[in-house]
Design brief:
The complex is a heterodimer of chains A (181) and B (217). Chain A has helices at residues 5-16, 22-34, 36-53, 64-80, 83-106, 112-118, 159-164, 175-178; strands at 130-134, 139-141, 154-158, 168-169. With 181 residues, chain A is of the alpha+beta class. The radius of gyration of chain A is 28 Å and the shape is elongated. With 217 residues, chain B is mostly helical. Chain B has two domains: 4-98, Rna Polymerase Sigma Factor, Chain: A, CATH 1.10.1740; 106-217, Arc Repressor Mutant, subunit A (Orthogonal Bundle). Helices cover 59% and strands 0% of the residues of chain B. Chain B has helices at residues 4-23, 30-34, 38-49, 52-68, 79-102, 135-146, 150-161, 166-173, 177-195. The chains are: A alpha+beta (181), B mainly alpha (217). Bound molecules: zinc ion (ZN) (2 copies).
């Protein structure tokens, strides 16, 4: 098997990974013996892989692990709060809900094209609707939606949960709920 | 003597046991589950955000999200893959915000996966890894990496720096294994070109990227 320079370059990365057939490997090595340009490309790639793969290249900032641990512990605290804690949270959610009612009635008379953007659409979306949230994204979707970013890491929850967590309805799959009635 | 495979199995059954206990309510064990991957989480975030403070913040946020949604983790996937997918999503979301604020053109990712022709043929064989002891060398390597387009940087960091397999890299980034290979080839060749001219003598002062030119454009 004979190979030209372009073929060597195209396969150079696989070659460095040992991901080529024995025949191709032999052909590449034979070519590189007579071609200084390809020899230096292959040698360079090996250096790149070796240097960047070194642990010293993947340092984390000093104290990173401790800070992560601390943040996680702080976040776990609400999970440990007792019955009273939950009652307080429950009462707070009623207050928030109440405030929401007020905001809603205050917005009566706002022109439709404005309210379409400024109002959450939770009036129409059934709270117990099963939706998918792409963690790290901003939207929640119907499970059938085709524009879910990184579906593999999407998690299921109810529409209500998703909205409480600050996600907004996907303008594609949930459009019918976004329309102003 | 334990083989690598046995070690791997040992690690994953320990992980399964941890996961079960966490889901059963021992939430404080979550850090133990995450710790083996915390460096990777940071590296993945940094590959997208290119800023240490932002990357650390994104890493923390991603870990918190994983914690919060651990009940939703489907166990046919690897926990580390899932955690890194969440991290990549989190970092990308922040990156989009950065770009929106900076009004930066999205020319960062030239949309051509075509052939990449090596530009530089200076000879630079046998680079001893001891040079990594030098801070300015590590710095120069990181700067070169930061010049790659995001999609090349992501693949390169997961595959060559975090040593993940092609398959796992593909899963985390939600792309095909063929795309991983194409982007990896291009990332490696671009880095080689970027770092070529000075290797072997006076490297850091003669770096081609020190002049701000991008040879692949
Ligand atoms: Zn050649
Ligand atoms: Zn959708």
């Amino acid at each position: 098997m004979g190979v030209n320079c372009e073929k060597v370059w195209r396969e150079s990365s696989n070659y460095v990974d040992g991901d080529v057939s024995p025949d191709l490997r032999k052909a590449i090595e034979e070519h590189a013996q007579g071609c200084p340009r390809c020899a230096t490309v292959l040698a360079g790639l090996k250096n790149i892989v070796q240097l960047y793969g070194d642990e010293r290249m993947s340092e984390v900032p000093l104290g990173y692990g401790q800070r992560l641990h601390r943040r996680l512990e702080n976040d776990m605290l609400p999970a440990r709060r007792g019955f009273m804690g939950w009652m307080v949270a429950f009462a707070a959610s009623i207050l928030v809900g109440g405030a929401f009612e007020v905001a809603r009635s205050a917005s009566v008379g706002v022109p439709e094209h404005v309210s379409q953007h400024s109002q959450p659409a939770d009036r129409q979306i059934p709270p117990d609707l099963g939706v998918l949230v792409s963690l790290g994204g901003k939207l929640f979707h119907l499970p059938t939606c085709r524009s879910i970013n990184n579906r593999a890491s999407a998690v299921a929850m109810t529409a209500q949960q998703a909205m409480q967590d600050g996600y907004t309805p996907c303008p594609r799959c949930l459009r019918k709920y976004l329309r102003v009635v | 003597m334990r083989t690598a495979l046995q070690n791997d199995l040992g690690a994953s059954s320990h992980e399964d046991a941890l996961l079960k206990r966490i889901k059963d309510g021992e939430r404080e064990l979550f850090y133990e589950l995450v710790q083996p991957y915390e460096r990777r989480v940071y590296a993945a975030a940094l590959s997208i955000l290119r800023n240490e403070a932002e990357a650390e913040d994104a890493a923390q946020e991603a870990v918190l999200k994983a914690f919060k949604h651990i009940g939703q983790f489907r166990e046919e996937a690897k926990f580390s893959t899932w955690l890194l997918q969440i991290t990549i999503n989190e970092a990308r979301m922040r990156r989009r915000k950065q770009l929106a604020h900076a009004m930066e053109p999205i020319a960062d990712q030239p949309n051509e996966d075509g052939e990449y022709i090596p530009r530089d043929f200076a000879d630079w064989r046998e680079i001893p890894s001891e040079i990594l002891e030098r801070h300015e060398i590590r710095d120069a390597l990181m700067k070169a990496l930061a010049m790659l387009g995001e999609k090349y940087r992501e693949v390169f960091v997961l595959r060559d720096m975090q040593r993940l397999s092609i398959e796992e890299t593909a899963k985390i980034l939600d792309i095909s294994t063929a795309s991983v290979k194409t982007r990896l080839l291009r990332a490696r060749l671009m880095l080689r070109d970027l770092l070529s001219p000075g290797f072997g003598g006076g490297w850091t002062t003669k770096l081609s990227f020190a002049k701000g030119n991008k040879p692949w454009e």
